[in-house]
Every structure is written in C-alpha cells, then in structure tokens.
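Researcher: For the annotation table, I need structure tokens for ABC transporter ATP-binding protein. Please keep the output clean. Sequence:
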Amino acid sequence: MNDAVRLEALSRTYGAGDRAVTALREVSLSFPTGTFTAVMGPSGSGKSTLLQCAAGLDAPTSGRVLIDGTDLSGLSEDQLTLLRRDRVGFVFQAFNLMPSLTAEQNVALPLRLAGRRPDPAVVRRALAEVGLDGRARHRPPELSGGQQQRVAVARALVTRPAVLFADEPTGALDTATSHDLLRMLRSLVDRGAGGAGGLATIVMVTHDPVVAAYAHRVVFLADGRLVGELSDPTPAAVAARLTGIAVAA
C-alpha cells in the first residue's frame, strides 16, 4: 500500500535560545492511502503542529514531509501552493463558507481560484457524495451547521485530493450531527479504498475519543513525540490510552 503522506524524523522548533519551544521531536509516521487516521494527545502535545507541517502549511525545522510521493522540502513557495491546491483538502472547525454564495458556488470556489472553469457535473458530484445534491442552490444561512460542514467537505473533495486534513471537524456541531458527519467521512474513505469512488485518505486531529473511534487507527502524541497507536479503536480503548499517557506525563 502506498503512503498518501509520510513524515520522516519531523521536528519543529519555534523561537531560539532560551525561548525556543520544540513542538515536534523526530516524528516518523506514515498515513497509507485508503486509511482514516485520528491524531490525538494532551493539550500541547503537537497535534496541530503535526497537521500543519504534514499539510505543507508550516515548514519543519528538520526532517521531511512527502505528500503523494512528493518531497515538500524541495518545492518553492509557488510549487507548494499548487500542491496544496490540487493534492490536499482541508476541513476545519469553522466552516469558512462564503455566505453570499450558494452551496455549489462555494464548492466550485477552489476551481475558480485555480483559474479553471468548474464543470457543473463535477461540482454536483461532490455535493452528492456528501448527501447534499438537493441543496446545491441553498446559501449557508439556509443550511444547518451539519449541512454547512458537509459543503466544506464537498469543497475539499472537488479537486480529488490525495489526502484530506481535518482539524476538529465536529467541534462546532451537536452530537447527533457529529456522528452523521463522521459516518459520512468514514464511508467516503472506505468507498475510495474499495475502488468505488470517494476519498482516498483522511488525517484528522481530535480530542474526543468517540470521534476518534470512527477512524481506522489512532496515533498518539505527547510532548511532541509519537508515543503509540491503536488500530480498530473503540471510545473506551482510546480514552484508556489517553489516560495512560496523562498518568505517564
């Protein structure tokens, strides 16, 4: 199985001298194509820094990041921008939709920003994949929070990225809506891995063991280091592992 993302001895330090803070310490980790991985750890463990470096939004102090086989360290800023635009999708806690645009116009936005004329069929397919094919002409204020986050996912999917990075994607949603969104994300990965279309790979940061249990595996960070992982997670198993990490700290 190929890796959608690979981190090799990744370190990230902010500041210098006595004020230096090391957020990541020699982290080596792979995210195989066709998998859904949750990244967890205590506050300050390096989760967000790992996501930003893995997605090419921040440059590591040392080590390498490879996305879809491309070494980011060898790219210019313009090349990085193109790679992020074409091969990487992003979903965050805030939906970041344009309120004056319809759902389909929001989804088409990455294509327009890339100077490409959006194919209406491609845009509609992205909305259909997230269960919103009947909401294409609705604007964000006319949609529920869960529906808005689905539009954000469709927007991330429209370029057919190699990987989708999600940072606390359910943080602004109620429990029932969160479960609906997570079932959809898991289904997209499973369908993509099975050759039935959908999304290839998801890397998601979360603090919630219930949310993490929708992933194929969970990787755990503490003090900027990789301290373990868990396959086929359950909420209880994830919570127990987090408690063990906290006790060890």
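Researcher: And a one-line annotation?
Model: The chain has one domain: 3-248.
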